[in-house]
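Contributing new records

If you add data, match the layout below exactly. Sequence lines come first and carry their own label; structure lines follow with theirs. Keep one chain per record. Anything else will be rejected by the validation script.
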Amino acid sequence: MLKQIFIFLFFLVSQPVLAQESERNYRTGEFDVKSTIVDLLGEKTAKSYEQIFDADEELLWNVFVPANFTPENAAGVIVYFSDKYPNQVESGWKGAAEEKNFIWVSPKRARNFTNRKKLLLGVLATPLIESLYPINGSRVYVTGDRSGCDLASNAARIYPNIFSGAIYNSCKAETWKKELPPGIDLMRKHRYVFIASARSENNREIRRSLIKYNKSGIENTQFKLLSSLDGNVKLNNNHIRDIVAYLDGDIESVN
């Protein structure tokens, strides 16, 4: 099933983003977007996933588009996994979105879904946003808070054709055992940031994931140790701005 999703979405997001009419009014701010799997994939393709989603099942994402968005400057996309309720964009992400020109999108009302459903919702976020806004397909990244970090690392590992970078915040990223993932060559071209809390007990596991990446030939990685009240790091505007700049390739290290 995951292989089928991979193949379809590789075709979908590898197509050039068509220019949209500059006079179109693009909604900005924070708002919900509803859709169905049929609307996103078409009736024929959606049947392949009927064991995951019903054809008419209403799917929901929370979206934040910065006020300074312009269609002439195609935006990046940050897909954010979280089990928090309500799943609202935090202030740090809002400020960074304006500075670094990206759209933030997160699966919503999904905390009780299976991980497979959550993962598919996150993966579908990119074609969802692409249907609404001009996006830069080379600047699509995945992340999440501590509750969504595992899903973010799985998405980055399984779909490197979609996600050209990831931020692993406060969790041990899911890796691989002996056999390298099918998309390892693409992953070696991307960038990944591993974040740990100074108060966390799993810093050693986080570093092990980083080492696994490096030993597999994924060299564009950064480790960032931040202070927090607990094991869950809350990124502020400056953190996110610098991390996105690193993922974009604008800087070679994260301060």
